[in-house]
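can u do me a favor
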């Protein structure tokens, strides 16, 4: 069994997932990162994160598929014999910004988004539970969004899925102790994912608006979200069942 604590970070090929894997490895954690399609990017993240004190490996896994969740957990156990933290970061959306245009979404869109954003984290926790219970400070962090609290964001389906993830977080925290289960709910996160989904004009306009109107005058970076995740994983031994908004105060104006 590894002397290092072990974490799994889903959706680890970029953004918040990659930043979290990097910070964990710097703190002496061994990490499995998963990605659904961009294995080349995930492999590069793993290579960059691996150091003399910690190892990071990448796997291709679609969290909406139960067998692939189980395979991810099995890989960590085969390699290091333990799991101490699970960060459910993998997520997806369909960009349909006008929430009044209900024709922009189909039942299939909802089912696909829920499959990744809600069913995926459930399946990962289910597969990891017996191993997490052997840890001295087991922790699950679900990466949600202020969309799930305020009913805003890239689409009605996305906001709804994050609302469901928040509710599931509360249920799991209540019933899976001593495993601590929390959700981090970021606002606008700078990066390629939103830039691509919004288009550069909307992205830059939204960023500028937040910087001009939010109480702290700042947008989130992947690193700023990762810092909160690391704090929950390593230091917050009495925090469970919390939905932690990280948005520079944006949601206070909504």
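np, heres the sequence
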């Amino acid at each position: 069994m590894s002397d290092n604590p072990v974490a799994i970070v889903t959706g680890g090929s970029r953004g918040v997932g990659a930043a979290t894997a990097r910070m964990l490895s710097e703190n002496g954690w061994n990490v499995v990162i998963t990605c659904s399609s961009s294995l080349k990017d995930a492999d590069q993240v793993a290579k960059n994160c691996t150091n003399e004190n910690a190892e990071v490996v990448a796997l291709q896994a679609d969290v909406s598929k139960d067998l692939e969740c189980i395979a991810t957990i099995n890989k960590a156990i085969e390699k290091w014999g333990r799991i101490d933290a699970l960060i459910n970061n993998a997520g997806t959306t369909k960009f349909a910004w006008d929430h009044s245009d209900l024709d922009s979404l189909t039942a299939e869109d909802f089912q696909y988004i829920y499959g990744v954003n809600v069913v995926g984290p459930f399946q990962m926790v289910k597969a990891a539970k017996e191993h997490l219970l052997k840890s001295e400070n087991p922790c699950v962090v679900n990466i949600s969004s202020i969309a799930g609290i305020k009913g805003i964001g890239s689409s009605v389906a996305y906001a709804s899925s994050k609302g469901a993830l928040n509710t599931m977080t509360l249920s799991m925290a209540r019933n899976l102790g001593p495993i601590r289960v929390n959700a981090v709910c970021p606002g606008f996160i700078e990066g390629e994912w939103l830039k691509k989904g919004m288009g550069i004009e909307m992205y830059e306009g939204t960023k500028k608006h937040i910087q001009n109107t939010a109480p702290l005058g700042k947008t989130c970076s992947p690193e700023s979200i990762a810092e909160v995740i690391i704090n929950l994983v390593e230091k917050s031994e009495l925090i469970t069942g919390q939905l932690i908004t990280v948005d520079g105060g944006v949601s206070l104006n909504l």
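The chain has a mean pLDDT of 97. hope that helps!!
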